[in-house]
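Before relying on records like the one below, remember that each one covers exactly one chain. Contacts with other chains, cofactors or solvent are not represented anywhere in the record.
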Amino acid sequence: MNDSTEKATAPASEPTFADFLVDPLAPESRKTRRDLLIASTVGVLAAWGGLVPTKISALGIDLSLGAQKGLTWALAVVVLYLTVAFISYGLTDYFNWRLRLQNYRERVDQETQSWGPEDQDRYDDVRQRVGDVSHLYARAGHVAWTRVVIDIVVPPVLGLAAFVSLCLRAWLG
């Protein structure tokens, strides 16, 4: 038995996607995502629900219409900043995730080149003893891509929607 057959773990038709089911975002990106979602929610509430303060009782300040518009513009700028920052972090994390996926696919392809009948028999024996989970492998890619869309695509879309809503609210009154 040579080294290549001992290293073989599964045929290429059933790759393990465990590396891609984990969080695609780095901790800093996750924090920025959280801040963006909070600011976007506040922005949508301010723009669509009219939740812009008219008075700050603790300081005894009554806010004029101009000051309310100023707060709305300020919130719009914060939402825009967080959206741009998250896009920057998110794209970096996405490219790292895709690079890991590509490297994994290349590694599986190389291992598959040396996959022989002996390896297949051993693999089939294991599947008979412990059960077949190929249906999980078949869905792992969809789960991973769903996670990328939810974690990386949706937040900036919500941020841009909040930004536009806030700008319209401040501009149109």
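Residues 1-15 have pLDDT under 50 and may be disordered.
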